[in-house]
Write a structure and sequence with these properties.
The structure is a single chain. The C terminus is likely disordered. This protein has a four-stranded parallel beta sheet, with helices on both faces. Strands 5-6-7 form a three-stranded mixed beta sheet. It is of the alpha/beta class and about 290 residues long. Helices cover about 45% and strands about 10% of the residues. Helix 5 packs parallel to helix 6. Strand 1, helix 2 and strand 2 form a beta-alpha-beta unit. The protein has two domains: about 160 residues, 3-Layer(aba) Sandwich (Rossmann fold); about 80 residues, Alpha-Beta Plaits (2-Layer Sandwich), CATH 3.30.70. The protein is globular, with a radius of gyration of 19 Å. The protein is built from twelve helices and seven strands.
Amino acid sequence: MSDANLLLKRDRLLAILGDMPSVAVALSGGIDSTVVAKAAHLALGERAVAVTADSPSVARRELNEACAVARLIGIRHVVVPTREFDNPDYAKNDGSRCYHCKTELYSTVKWLLPELGAALMASGANLDDLGDYRPGLAAAAEHAVRHPLQEAGFTKADVRALALHWELPTWDKPASPCLASRMAPGVEVTPERAERVERAEALLHALGARECRVRYHEGDVARIEVPVEQVPRLAADPVRTELARALRALGFKFVALDLDGFRSGSLNELVPLGVRGAFGTPQTRPEI
């Protein structure tokens, strides 16, 4: 995208947020919500606040990064506990888990809006999210959550370009969904399993795998996904034996290395068609 087009989209984003009386931005620490938080702070100043959920599904690394980026931006920031694990429909993980998680988040933030001094809620969803299975967008629609990036015509590539333009240090940060997203559909989501995944992925990060997933399958099976060029290194000794030993020590009974490499959202392939149909994307791409 040319510099001129990027600046046009930037100005459109700032205008959309500037037209809001006040807003609470759901800040996960990922690049999309970080850009929205930055734009909201520029457009609204103290009338913008960033809200970050804290629960066992949020990796401590991600929570710390969200707090750090909020400080860098200068936006007001509030961390709120969420209780999605108390919801049996969330825990059973039938493919609709993200809907119940976002419902808990948006319900909590909506209840806090008067205290936060905010009239509206905003997310970091961009246009690329409309082409994927995203039940969280259904929850957002039910709670009147605005998606400024979509409204301004931002793709993921556009978001990264604007983040680089604004010199945000996370402009090239890989996507890092919540820990519960690592559980295969049908595998019950528990705080213990979320912690197990977090510790397993920390081992991969220590080995230099910046983008990785430890997918949790039935029978306490860990399926490791890393970029395909890193597969040979993890498959060779001594890394293979040490990694397998470490993951078994965490409680996994079997450890598998996916030869297809890292694939974002690969567990969506296991979501039953009936569930996918019930939580289809509630929006289409706007005309830009």
